[in-house]
TrEMBL record:
GO molecular function: DNA binding
Domain XRCC4 N-terminal per the UniProt entry, residue ranges: 17-88
Top-rank lineage group of the source organism: Eukaryota
Originating gene: Xrcc4_0
Keyword entries, A-Z: DNA damage, DNA repair, Nucleus
Protein name per its UniProtKB record: XRCC4 protein
Major location category of this protein: nucleus
Localization (cell): Nucleus
Cellular component terms per the entry's GO annotation: DNA ligase IV complex; DNA-dependent protein kinase-DNA ligase 4 complex
InterPro entries: DNA_repair_prot_XRCC4, XRCC4-like_N_sf, XRCC4_N, XRCC4_N_sf
Provenance organism: Chloroceryle aenea
Amino acid sequence: MEKTLNRIHPVSDPEATYFLQVSWEKDLGTGFGVILSDGQCAWTGTVSEAEISREAADMEMNRGKYVEELKKALISGEESSDKYNFAIS
Protein backbone atom coordinates (compact mmCIF):
# COMPACT_ATOMS: atom_id res chain seq x y z
CA MET A 1 0.00 0.00 0.00
CA GLU A 2 1.23 3.47 -0.88
CA LYS A 3 0.58 6.52 1.26
CA THR A 4 1.23 10.23 1.12
CA LEU A 5 0.80 12.86 3.79
CA ASN A 6 0.43 16.53 2.88
CA ARG A 7 -0.14 19.69 4.88
CA ILE A 8 -2.95 21.82 3.49
CA HIS A 9 -4.25 25.29 4.30
CA PRO A 10 -7.87 25.46 3.14
CA VAL A 11 -9.14 28.61 1.46
CA SER A 12 -12.17 28.39 3.75
CA ASP A 13 -9.85 28.97 6.77
CA PRO A 14 -6.35 29.99 5.57
CA GLU A 15 -4.96 30.28 9.12
CA ALA A 16 -5.78 26.63 9.85
CA THR A 17 -3.49 23.73 9.07
CA TYR A 18 -4.83 20.31 8.15
CA PHE A 19 -3.06 17.11 7.28
CA LEU A 20 -4.34 14.96 4.43
CA GLN A 21 -3.24 11.34 4.14
CA VAL A 22 -4.16 9.46 0.98
CA SER A 23 -3.56 5.71 0.67
CA TRP A 24 -4.07 3.41 -2.30
CA GLU A 25 -3.23 -0.10 -3.47
CA LYS A 26 -2.50 -0.28 -7.22
CA ASP A 27 -3.08 3.26 -8.38
CA LEU A 28 -5.35 6.12 -7.42
CA GLY A 29 -7.81 5.20 -10.16
CA THR A 30 -8.76 1.93 -8.44
CA GLY A 31 -9.96 3.79 -5.36
CA PHE A 32 -8.30 5.26 -2.30
CA GLY A 33 -8.70 6.05 1.37
CA VAL A 34 -8.37 9.46 2.97
CA ILE A 35 -7.71 10.70 6.47
CA LEU A 36 -8.07 14.42 7.18
CA SER A 37 -6.86 15.75 10.52
CA ASP A 38 -6.62 19.15 12.16
CA GLY A 39 -4.26 17.77 14.81
CA GLN A 40 -7.06 17.21 17.32
CA CYS A 41 -9.73 15.37 15.34
CA ALA A 42 -9.52 13.06 12.34
CA TRP A 43 -12.04 12.19 9.66
CA THR A 44 -11.76 9.14 7.42
CA GLY A 45 -13.35 8.09 4.19
CA THR A 46 -12.94 6.00 1.08
CA VAL A 47 -13.45 6.73 -2.60
CA SER A 48 -14.31 3.74 -4.79
CA GLU A 49 -13.33 3.14 -8.40
CA ALA A 50 -17.01 3.51 -9.34
CA GLU A 51 -17.19 6.91 -7.60
CA ILE A 52 -14.11 8.07 -9.51
CA SER A 53 -15.68 7.01 -12.82
CA ARG A 54 -18.99 8.65 -11.92
CA GLU A 55 -17.31 11.95 -10.96
CA ALA A 56 -15.25 11.98 -14.17
CA ALA A 57 -18.44 11.41 -16.20
CA ASP A 58 -20.28 14.14 -14.25
CA MET A 59 -17.48 16.55 -15.08
CA GLU A 60 -17.47 15.38 -18.73
CA MET A 61 -13.79 14.58 -18.39
CA ASN A 62 -11.83 11.63 -19.71
CA ARG A 63 -11.41 9.21 -16.77
CA GLY A 64 -7.63 8.96 -17.24
CA LYS A 65 -7.29 12.75 -17.24
CA TYR A 66 -9.50 12.95 -14.13
CA VAL A 67 -7.28 10.46 -12.29
CA GLU A 68 -4.19 12.48 -13.27
CA GLU A 69 -5.80 15.62 -11.85
CA LEU A 70 -6.64 13.73 -8.64
CA LYS A 71 -2.98 12.71 -8.34
CA LYS A 72 -1.84 16.30 -8.78
CA ALA A 73 -4.35 17.63 -6.25
CA LEU A 74 -4.11 14.94 -3.60
CA ILE A 75 -0.64 13.39 -3.67
CA SER A 76 1.76 15.73 -5.46
CA GLY A 77 2.32 17.85 -2.37
CA GLU A 78 3.91 21.27 -2.23
CA GLU A 79 4.62 21.62 -5.96
CA SER A 80 0.86 21.64 -6.64
CA SER A 81 -0.17 23.75 -3.66
CA ASP A 82 -0.55 26.92 -5.75
CA LYS A 83 -2.74 25.18 -8.36
CA TYR A 84 -5.39 23.57 -6.17
CA ASN A 85 -7.57 25.01 -3.42
CA PHE A 86 -9.20 23.07 -0.62
CA ALA A 87 -12.33 24.10 1.27
CA ILE A 88 -13.35 22.41 4.50
CA SER A 89 -17.06 22.18 5.21
